[in-house]
Amino acid sequence: MITEQNWTHCIYKDIHSEEMAQISIGADWKESAITEQYFVAHVDENHLGIDESCFSKLDQAIGFINTQFKDWEFIDLEIVNQKNKKEGGCGTCSAH
């Protein structure tokens, strides 16, 4: 489950289609002030957008993603990146 502590590095992934869902942060300019926005992005296997929902509060985005994508595989990308560093790959520059 995605929480306020892990939303920056966790995703949901459909193991059949390779589609993913994640939360990202953005901002908007309203009434002479910047306001934070949280986006739940649903992307295909090539990271191309399928759809996106915008929320003004993080807890709203977390509630939405956990409801909409709860049946998909939950992936903690920090763990994936740690494994890749041990084995080589982008995080270690061993491929270059």
Structure description:
The protein has 96 residues and is α+β, with helices and mostly antiparallel strands. The chain has helices spanning 58-68, 77-87; strands spanning 10-13, 20-30, 33-43, 49-55, 73-76. A five-stranded antiparallel β-sheet has the order 4-3-2-1-5. The protein is globular. It starts with 9 loop residues before the first strand and ends in a 9-residue tail after the last helix. The mean pLDDT is 88.
The largest β sheet comes out as: 5 strands, antiparallel
State the helicity in percent bands. 10-25%
**Structural Rg:** 15 Å
Helix segment tally: 2
| Low confidence ranges | none
Counting structural domains, the number is: 1
Mean pLDDT, to the nearest integer, reads: 88
Percent in strands:
35-45%
Classify the oligomer: single chain
Distance between the termini: 35 Å
Secondary-structure-derived class: alpha+beta
Beta strands, count: 5
Which series of helices and strands comes N to C? Answer: EEEEHEH
| Side-by-side strand order of the widest sheet | 4-3-2-1-5
* Shape type: globular
From the structure above, extract its key features.
23% helix; globular; five-stranded antiparallel β-sheet; 96 residues; 5 strands; alpha+beta
Short description:
The chain is α+β, with helices and mostly antiparallel strands and 96 residues long. 23% of the residues lie in helices and 39% in strands.
Topology readout:
Elements lengths: L9 E4 L6 E11 L2 E11 L5 E7 L2 H11 L4 E4 H11 L9
Antiparallel strand pairs: 1-2, 1-5, 2-3, 3-4
